[in-house]
Design a protein that fits this description.
The chain is an alpha+beta fold. About 25% of the residues lie in helices and about 30% in strands. The two termini are about 30 Å apart. The chain binds adenosine-5'-triphosphate and magnesium ion (MG). Magnesium ion binds next to helix 1.
Length: about 350
């Protein structure tokens, strides 16, 4: 069942159209990652769902009810921001309890819920501390705890991990995923981090310039990007884009001089190859049919390396190799494309295959 329906939502600030006909159906219990370049409208969309901002047009439905005119506190939504604000003069316990206390709920109920949430988040030992005596990750966990206290049906996370260091992010990422399994609340998670989006989300929503580009599972966006924008955005390093040329006399299609196998869509103008579809041939292969290029950079991750190459005409190619230390900057290599993994796009930028 769909819990949240964002129906034809637009938002303009003056003449600046920030969201353009955003239409999304989010299922009960789903974990959605909302991604897109800076300024594309992610936070604005979250604020509209939370009720902190009004849509210029369109509707927000929760549980089948239009909530455009429902106040934020009555929407059953909890939002965790990047710059979560804890009350500095209140202990962790009182920070957690704050909202319930303000509502005048019975003290025993508040105390019980506080302990439940603290246990869920591993904050039991910290309940008596003030925020200034907590690490960044602990503070983030308290902020999360405050959101959980109310048992909301919908969680909105706006880049909650971006202030944390790399190790802590990985840790919190796992914690949020586990928390989601326990609470099963519908969640929208805004992130700049592709690994977060790919690993945590049931589905990814990719927004660009206020327009939804594609909605799908991480695998769908990776394997079948709907257009050039998605193809370039998802995956790091990005796919290599190569022009496809047609030969009107032979009817053959070529890329970088290589004849492409038959069956390529006739309207194909660009071909995208992910690094794993470009293999560096061994010296013994002689490089037949491959593309000659010089290695200009290497990102060695130990278990695998990304090798960045440049052809004589300036074309840049990114390749993935297993292991490390096989090639070095300055080496001349031959890159073997695997056309069975190629993505083809037409003039409009839409996917063809
Ligand atoms: N209150 C406001 N008044 C005017 N313009 C605004 C307002 N809030 C946001 N904008 C503009 O709307 C656009 C989208 O902003 P938004 O914060 O939603 O982007 P974002 O995708 O969250 O970006 P980031 O990834 O940098 O957080 C931006 O161009 C921003 O300048
Ligand atoms: Mg934002």
């Amino acid at each position: 069942m769909s819990y949240l329906r964002i129906s034809h939502v637009t938002k303009s600030f003056g003449a600046n159209a920030v969201l353009k006909d955003v239409d999304l159906d989010i299922q009960d219990g789903e974990f959605i990652a909302l991604v897109g370049p800076s300024g594309c409208g992610k936070s604005t969309l979250m604020r509209i769902v939370a009720g902190l901002e009004a849509a210029t047009s369109g509707e927000i439905h929760m549980d089948g009810r239009i909530v455009n005119d429902v106040a934020p506190r009555d929407r059953d939504v909890a939002m965790v921001f990047q710059n979560y604000a804890l009350y500095p003069h209140l202990t962790v316990r009182d920070n957690l309890a704050f909202a319930m206390t303000m509502r005048g709920l019975p003290a025993a109920e508040i105390a019980k819920r506080t302990v439940e949430v603290a246990t869920m988040l591993g904050l039991e030992e910290l309940l008596g501390r003030l925020p200034k005596a907590l690490s960044g990750g602990q503070r983030q966990r308290v902020a999360m705890g405050r959101a959980i206290m109310r048992k909301p049906r919908l969680f909105l996370f706006d880049e909650p991990l971006s202030n944390l260091d790399a190790k802590l992010r990985v840790h919190m990422r796992l914690e949020i995923a586990q928390l989601h399994k326990k609470l099963k609340a519908t969640s929208i998670f805004v992130t700049h981090d592709q690994v977060e989006a790919m690993t945590m989300a049931d589905r990814i929503v990719l927004l660009n310039d206020g327009v939804v580009q594609q909605v799908g599972t991480p695998k769908e966006l990776y394997d079948r990007p709907a257009n050039l924008f998605v193809a370039n955005f998802i995956g790091s390093p990005s796919m290599t884009m190569i022009r496809v040329d047609g030969d009107s006399t032979t009817n053959q299609r070529r890329a970088l001089g290589t004849v492409l196998p038959p069956g390529i869509p006739a309207e194909a103008r660009q071909m995208g190859l992910r690094p794993e579809a470009l293999r560096i041939a061994d010296a013994g292969d002689g490089g037949d049919g491959g593309w000659r290029a010089d290695v200009v950079g290497i990102e060695d991750l130990g278990y695998q390396s990304f090798v960045f190459c440049e052809m004589a005409d300036g074309t840049r190619l990114s390749s993935l190799t297993h292991g490390s230390g096989h090639v070095h900057v300055g080496d001349s290599v031959s890159l073997q494309p695997d056309f069975s993994q190629a993505h083809f796009f037409g003039d409009t930028g839409l996917r063809l295959n």
